[in-house]
Design brief:
Length: 482
């Protein structure tokens, strides 16, 4: 069974795919938007919806001076120059327009923004913004535009319809897709195919293949690397090799293997001065826990076996958390932590260090020695081992706690290689004609480098979706350059 006649098939209805499909259809293209999930939105259902732009009306209203040039400089500083500068320049130049589009669409921005976010290495200027409902605030704008485009333009949406293959002609040009829909394999012809399927943070096999460690993730369950597999099937190259960086620490999910509990995670950034120590499986400390750079911590974490560590503290530290003070675990008061100990996975407590070490799987002798050395450092006011300066109290009041932490995948950093027109490239660096890619499928490393830059995943998805959609629409005009 064959169906033909689409100017563009967009695979994936997350933020990049939605934006691209709507812009292309508005400009006169006949578009098929195909989504394997039952709903549109992709990672926006889980995302905090962070955007970053330099020189927006939201910043000006708050008295913040910024510009695309300063935004670019901050990204280059944080990423140490490992980003794709050609792509990032596109993003920072277009990002203010994206924010103004959302403002004009009536999106309700959180009044605490623009702000500096400390979950990863921070910007020097407050430029991160997000809606009052996180990613859902952005999705509300995109879905309203989708419905308008479906009603007024030639835009067709299929959900519950996974794309199972790319179709090529004898010259290797991509000329359509194969879709599994309503129990049948359907062949679709298209002048252009856009892959916007997201990352592979829920594909444990591909993740381990790419990075050599076991996957622990908070990514959307639909992020199964479909776009990577589709691109590989036609010879696409992968960019971002070696740029993976784990997010610093997450508790095991109480229900599902390979997943972390992102909603209830330890607060391990400068927003909470640490009372605890971090130890590895031998019981040894491995970094100054008050190190202000989250980037330094994330890089040190990659050197630990399986990217696993434990935070160890006493009941006096628990009593000092919550109640208006920074919590140890987000959303938990002191009694919540005590109640979950030895009940929830990864949360251990006992009356002696030896006992809590045995429960957690830490070497008891090593932990006892590490705590004793730390307590001596507190007494002396000097941490000769790691140079920690925040030494508020010894770990000495039972029960003792050991909380399992795992480096977690929030996004994936490598993905399909593209040029600055978003055309997918093969191993020789040549374009695969008829094939484009935008969104996380190109890898976060393209726009963040070997680092995390606030807002530099969702913002590029929207920027690239808008630009590519408009270019696809322009192809329908007789005078357009093809």
């Amino acid at each position: 069974m064959a169906r033909a006649g689409y100017d563009a098939v967009v695979v994936g209805a997350g933020p990049a795919g939605l934006t691209c499909a709507v812009r292309a259809a508005r400009g006169g293209a006949r578009v098929l938007l195909v989504e394997k999930d039952r709903r549109t939105g992709g990672a926006l259902h889980l995302s905090g919806g962070h955007l970053s732009a330099g020189g927006t009306s939201l910043q000006r209203a708050a008295g913040i001076e910024d510009s695309p040039e300063l935004h670019l400089a901050d990204i280059q500083r944080i990423s140490n120059g490992t980003e794709r500068t050609d792509l990032v320049r596109l993003v920072v130049d277009e990002a203010p327009g994206v924010v103004e589009w959302l403002v004009g669409s009536g999106m309700a921005f959180d009044p605490e923004t623009p702000r500096i976010v400390y979950g990863h290495e921070p910007y020097e200027i407050p430029r991160t913004v997000y809606g009052v409902e996180g990613g859902l605030s952005v999705l509300q704008v995109l879905e309203a535009e989708l419905e308008e485009a479906r009603a007024a333009h030639d835009l067709t949406l299929w959900t519950n319809a996974p794309v199972t293959g790319l179709r090529t002609d004898d010259a290797g040009r991509v000329v359509g897709v194969e879709v599994y829909r309503d129990g049948d394999e359907v062949e679709i012809d298209a002048a252009v195919v856009v892959i916007a399927t997201g990352g592979y943070g829920a594909d444990a096999e591909l993740f381990t293949e790419r990075h050599g460690v076991e996957l622990v993730t908070v990514a959307s369950r639909t992020s199964t690397g479909d776009g990577i597999h589709l691109g590989r099937s036609v010879g696409a190259a992968i960019q971002g090799e070696g740029t993976y960086l784990p997010t610093f620490g997450g508790l095991p999910d109480p229900q599902a293997p390979h997943r972390a509990n992102w909603a209830e995670r330890l607060l391990l950034t400068v927003e909470r001065p640490p009372r605890e120590i971090y130890v590895d499986s031998t019981g040894s400390r491995w970094i100054a826990e008050d190190e202000p750079s989250i980037d330094v911590k994330e890089r040190a974490l990659t050197a630990l076996p399986d990217q696993v560590f434990w935070t160890v503290f006493d009941d006096d530290a628990v009593a000092d958390s919550g109640g208006g003070r920074p919590p140890i675990v987000l959303g938990w008061e002191a009694d919540d932590l005590r109640r979950h100990a030895n009940v929830r996975p990864g949360i251990h407590a006992a009356d002696t260090l030896e006992e809590v070490a045995a429960l957690a799987g830490i070497d008891p002798d090593g932990l006892v020695a590490a705590v004793a050395a730390y307590n001596r450092a507190v007494e002396a006011g000097v941490d000769e081992d790691f140079g920690r300066t925040h030494l508020p109290a010894p770990i000495a009041v039972p029960p003792y706690y050991a909380l399992h932490n795992q480096g977690i995948a929030v996004v994936t950093f490598d993905g399909l290689d593209i040029d600055d027109t978003f055309a997918v490239l093969d191993e020789a660096g040549a374009r695969i004609e008829g094939l484009f890619a935008i969104g996380e499928v190109i890898g976060a490393g393209a726009t963040c480098g070997n680092s995390f830059c606030s807002g530099m995943l969702l913002t590029p998805a929207l920027v690239f979706g808008r630009l590519l959609g408009e270019r696809l629409a322009a192809r329908q005009r007789p005078d357009a350059v093809r």
